[in-house]
Amino acid sequence: MKETPEEKRSRLLNLAKSSVGSAYAGTEHSITQAIASYNELEKTRNLVHEKLEEWYGIFFPELRLANPISYAKFIIRFGMDKKAADQAKLAELLGGAAEQVQIQAVNSIGREPTDEEYQQLKALAELELNIAETEEKLDRYLEASAKKLMPNITYLIDYKVAAEILGKAGSLEKLALMPAGTIQLLGAEKALFKHIKFGSKPPKYGSIFKLQQVGGAARFDRGRIARAYGAKLAIAARADGISKNFIADKLKAQLDEVIKKQSNRPPKPGSQNRYKNSGSQGNRNQWGNFRGRGGDFRNQGGDFRSHGGWHGNKRQKKRQNHTATKSSGF
Predict the structure, then answer these.
(1) What is the DSSP code string of 28-66?
(2) Where residue 302 falls among pLDDT bands split at 50, 70, 90?
(3) Is 71 in contact with 65 (CB distance < 8 Å)?
(4) How far apart are the first and last CA of the chain?
(5) Among 48, 179, 285, 293, which has the highest number of CB atoms less than 10 A from its own CB?
(6) pTM of this prediction?
């Protein structure tokens, strides 16, 4: 019996629902959303702390604490009357910095906040602590989930960086099929498209720049180290997504050997100046600055709108017709 249009529509809808359900059945999409939420929460907490520090700086401008959580807790416990805090209570919260903070509080030029001001500051500090607590929970979830889903990749790099790379790829299957160069540049899409569109310097690394071995390396070694990471991560992704074999210990040993060789490698002569003669700047020096010498289209006839070409010829004909009309008296 021939299928009616309504039956066909119903069958295709059910097939689409089944495909979507199977595509989101794994934990990889949850990890992607978790790392995105973690990054947004981190930005939000930093913004809240910045405003909290600016506001409470009116009342205690001398207070400088490296740990933002300790700063928020100080406001909650001692923000109403900073000079009443004794050294023993401060030591529980601040440790070795308690004595210095107590001296600063006694000699502070700031006034004490009113009860209404303190309540608002306390609410803002509690908000920061709540966000930090949520961050910790997300961090624990990411560590457990990412290491379970990607044991090889998380053995080579930090689990949060691995989760970011997974989010940029879209899924573990797509990540496993990507070449090493693409994995190396995941997270640098804006810089890559800027290079393609405007001819700026091409990026050498994306999210893997957050790794200490890449970001902390010498400036002219980062590209090679990032390339080595891209190559090993491509192999690790195939092991996690396809073969399901654990080979990260061998990859880690090979990667450490490459980084060690690169770190002990003496710099090439003139390597400090090689970027001055490469990239977009080098192209300008070789072919002429587009707005200066050599390649200036506006100054050397290359602009067809004013010096030849279809637009130039059309404008020239208009001028000639206009001059002929004026000379004829019309």
Answers:
(1) HHHHHHHHHHHHHHHHHHHHHHHHHHHHHTTT-TT---S
(2) very low
(3) yes
(4) 81
(5) 48
(6) 0.73
